[in-house]
Specification:
7-stranded mixed beta sheet, 4-stranded antiparallel beta sheet, alpha/beta
């Protein structure tokens, strides 16, 4: 099943008399439950592409389908609702809310986008804490846990709404090698357990090595996707 399909997708930004072509007529399909990396130098369009897939930035032209829905011309309110129900995000700087506990940070998307009872939210958060091996850390605040633990919390938060798709922008950039490898392993385990699709924008060779499909971007132009024979795939 295809979870993301782009056809002649473009994104242009206008600043005064200057038009910047961030994405130039790209075509690609991404299958469900896959591990995919977009790679390329800074300014190549990786983050722009992730923002469009994540309904954060509308395309200029072309078509884009995510989870069976054409999101090309969605209104901002429809985009927000669709994003909350279908897409999770993981960032390089974790983006945890410092005044909330680990438990509350993971619970936050459920409060914001889904009308779940307190009991159901508690059960779901506890399930995610167990999945990322943080069951005994729920009472702590972000300042009281390590960088690797923060990223584990971020992974749990991204998946707590049963997201079909997780977009990860440089998720290992602020982690040491050993911790980064553990986080990559955790995300692959979560993919296998929950059938979630992970799409990365990254420079990290450790992430690229584990990707099943690699798309290379240069100046907004997408090279043909390649299967990664060197990755560690289940």
């Amino acid at each position: 099943m295809i979870i993301v399909a782009a056809k002649q997708l473009t994104k242009h930004y206008v600043a005064g008399d200057i038009t910047v072509e961030a994405i130039r007529g790209v075509d690609f399909n991404i299958n469900s439950a896959s591990f995919v990396s977009f790679v390329g130098p800074s300014g190549s369009g990786k983050s722009t592409l992730l923002n469009m897939i994540g309904c954060l930035d509308p395309p200029t032209s072309g078509s884009l389908e995510v989870a069976g829905r054409d999101i090309t011309d969605m209104t901002s309110s429809d985009s927000a609702l669709f994003r909350g129900e279908n897409i999770g995000f993981i960032f390089q700087d974790f983006n945890l809310i410092p005044v909330l506990t680990v438990f509350e940070n993971i619970e936050y998307p459920l409060i914001m986008v889904q009308n779940w009872s307190v009991k159901k939210r508690k059960q779901q958060v506890e399930k995610m804490l167990e999945a990322v091996d943080m069951s005994d850390q729920g009472h702590k605040y972000p300042s009281q846990i390590s960088g690797g633990q923060k990223q584990r919390v971020a992974v749990a938060r991204a998946l707590v709404t049963n997201a079909k798709l997780v977009l990860a922008d440089e998720p290992t950039a602020n982690l040491d090698r050993d911790t980064a490898n553990k986080i990559i392993g955790l995300m692959k385990h979560m993919r296998d357990e929950f059938g979630t699709t992970f799409i990365f924008s990254t420079h990290d060779p450790k992430v690229v090595k584990n990707a099943e499909i690699i798309f290379t971007l240069e100046d907004g132009i997408l090279q043909e996707g390649s299967k990664n024979s060197g990755g560690d795939h289940e």
